[in-house]
Amino acid sequence: MKENINQLTGIFIIVSIAVLGYLNYDREVITQEVEDIEEVNDNLDTIEIPESVVVPAVFVPEIEMMEIMLTELKATIRPYKIVGKINWPKNREAKFYLKDTTITAYVNWSGKFEAEIPGNYEGYITFHHGDETTNMYISEAALKDIPLTINTKEFDETINYGDASSESSYLAWKFLYQEESSISPDVYNSTAEELSATFDSLFQPMLEKLDEFYTDTNLVDSLKNVSLDLDEEMDKLWESDLDSSWSDEVNEILEKQIYINQIISKLVFYNAEIEWMNKIKNYYLKRHEQVQNVPKAGEAAIDFTYPDMDSNMVSLSDFIGSYVYVDIWATWCGPCKYEIPFLIQLEKDYHDANIVFISISTDVEDKRQVWIDMIKNMGGVQLISTDGWKSKICQDYAINGIPRFMLFDTEGNVVSSNAARPSSEEIRETFDGFVLDQEVEDEMSGMTEADPPAGEE
Questions:
Q1: What string of H, E and C letters represents the secondary structure of 99-124?
Q2: What's the pTM value of the predicted model, to 2 decimals?
C-alpha cells in the first residue's frame, strides 16, 4: 500500500512538472488549458452539435491524484485580455457585455485599453463604445490574448482581431454582410415557400463562410482520430511503470487533449450560428402564418371592444361612417412615446376631417394609473386592454411589436393593418386623400337634377 502511495506521489510530481513545462508556456497559460480540458470533458454530453456531427467521448481517467493536480492548477487560471486600440475614441469607456455581467475598460488618451475577461468564460460578448456596438465570441480554447483595433469613423468596416479570434472575425463579417444585403424578408406579401427561399439565399454566404470552421479544416475527422489516439495512449500510460518517459508522454497527451478542446469549441460556435439561422427563419415563417389570418386591405375588420378611463366600453364598430386611425401602444414603450406629439398634432391638423383617432394601451392592470396620468393631455379616444401581449387585438392582428398603427375605412373594412406612423409624411398623404374623397362625395351629394328646358315636360 505504501509503495502504491509513493508511486502515485511520484506520478503527481512528474505530471505537474510536465504540465508546467508544456510547450514552454507560463504556468498561467497551462492552468487555463488544464481548466479547459476538464470543462470540456465534464460537459461533452451536454454540447449540442449539428445532426451531421458525431463527437466521440473522450476518456479521462478518474484518478485521485490527477484531480488533485487539476484543483491545484485551477487556482492560477489567467483571465483573457482584450487588448484594444480605438482610433478617434468617442469617450473614455469600452464596455463588454457578457451573459451575466458587464466589464468596463478605461480608454486612455491614445485610444488604448485592456479588458480582462474571466478565464472560464466562453460565448458571445457585445462590445460597446460611443453609440456603436458589435458582437464578439470568446472561446475557452483560446491560447492567447485578443487584439481589437477599430476606427470610430468607420466602426464596422475597420474592426479587426488579427488572427486571435476567427469567430469574432466571422461575426464582424456577418454584420457587414447583413447590413449591405438587399435581401429583405416580406411576411405580408410572400408565400411561405418564397419566404423560405429568401432566407436560404440570405444564409447561403454565411454557411459558406462558416465552413471554414467545419468542413474546410476537417474538424470532425480530426476530432475522431485524435480522440481514438488519446484513448489508446491513456490506456498505455496508466498500465505502464513509472519511468523517465512519463513526462514526454504526459506532454503528448495534454497536447492532444487541448487540440480536442479547440476543435470542440469551434464546433460549438458553428452549431450556435446554425441554431441562430434556424431560429430566425422559423420565427419569420411562424410570423408569416400568423399574418395570413389577419384581414387584408378591403376585407372586414375584426371588431374590438375596450374600456376608457371611465370604464365605458368602446368598440371599433361604434365608428362606422368615419375613418378610424388606431394606435396600439404602452406607457413603457419609448418609440410609442416618441410618436405621441406627432399623433396629437396630426389629430389637430385633421380635426375637421371625418377621421377618428383611437389609442389602445397594452399596459397591464397594475399600470392603469400610470396610463391615466399619461393620457390626461392626449386627445382622441383613449382605451386600455390590461392584458399586455395577450390582448385579443394583438392576437387578432398578429401584433408582436409596438407602436403599431392600423387604419380602417368608413364601412369598417381594413385599409391597412400596418399603417404609416404619425411622424411620417406618408400618413398625411393618405389622410389628404380621404379629405379629397370626402369633398368630392359631398359635392356629388349636393347636386340636384337640372330643370328640363322650357317647352319640355
A1: CCCEEEEECCCCCEEEEEECCCCCEE
A2: 0.60
